[in-house]
Amino acid sequence: MEIIRDWRDVPEALRGATVALGNFDGVHLGHAHLVRAAHAARPDAKLAVLTFEPHPRAFFRPDDPPFRLSTAAGRAGALAALGVQILYELPFDDTFSKLSGEAFVDQVLQTGIMAVHLASGPDFAFGWRKGGDVGLLAARAEALGLGQTVVPKLADAVGPLSSTRVRRDLQDGYPERAAAVLGRPWAITGRVAEGQRLGRTIGFPTANVALGELLEPARGVYAVTIETSQNIYKGVANIGRRPTVNAGPESRLEVHLFDFAGDLYGQEITVALHRFLRAETKFAGLDALKAQIARDAAEARRLLGVS
User: Fold this and answer.
1) Residue pLDDT, tens place only, 209-226
2) Which of 39, 148, 213, 216 is least surrounded, with the fewest CB atoms within 10 Å of its CB?
3) 185-304 is classed in which CATH architecture?
4) Range 2-150 classified under CATH 1.10.3370.10
């Protein structure tokens, strides 16, 4: 998949695509539905996605807590897995945010990337102060000779599939519900950093990963799977601030890999959340913490089918 970040300088070979429009945070099953609909509308054209980096919400509300379900790299990988050939990942800055809806269609979609067909959900909004909607998109597309498809939201028995719903499920402690919307378990990818090495002293060494710009799910203990550069392991993880050891105000992920011996410092790992076991708790001391971690590990082994 080719990634283009400058809409003013798109190589000729990467123009003329059918383009799915949106933020695609998390790349859930609804997004996959939109991508497939874009391809079905013009199967003869290259398949592309146009999105923004950073997420517009992060640009306009920089002091909000982290909310993203995927990093830019994670989003790109998930879109490539759907067969997307071109990703227009446009920098969302002050200048771009002030483009009118008409200018976005005329200058970016038509002149810049020379799209031949546009596909979006029914609530896609764009341009200065979200002045553009699918009605404006349809009118400008018709005037410019571009095809357009408005793709209804994909829904299940609970309701429409959306990134907002995934965030809510994760923050409520239901990673399995989030997985049903995503089509896969939600995962955190990051580099293993040096920690206090406290886990080693109580028999449960952990790999520590910062959450960074990703959403913080419900604080507590999870049954997880861990993918390293060499293998896939099962394990138990804690997300939170570790109140028993007064580790500070910043939440992070600490994961213990079952039946693993080795050093992961500096390596990138991916930790997928499967089940929430319990909320984060402050214990009276390290002995009580050690006993509870042993119980957590046993429950995670049971849920994950580890003998």
Assistant:
1) 999 999 999 999 999 999
2) 213
3) Beta Barrel (2.40)
4) no
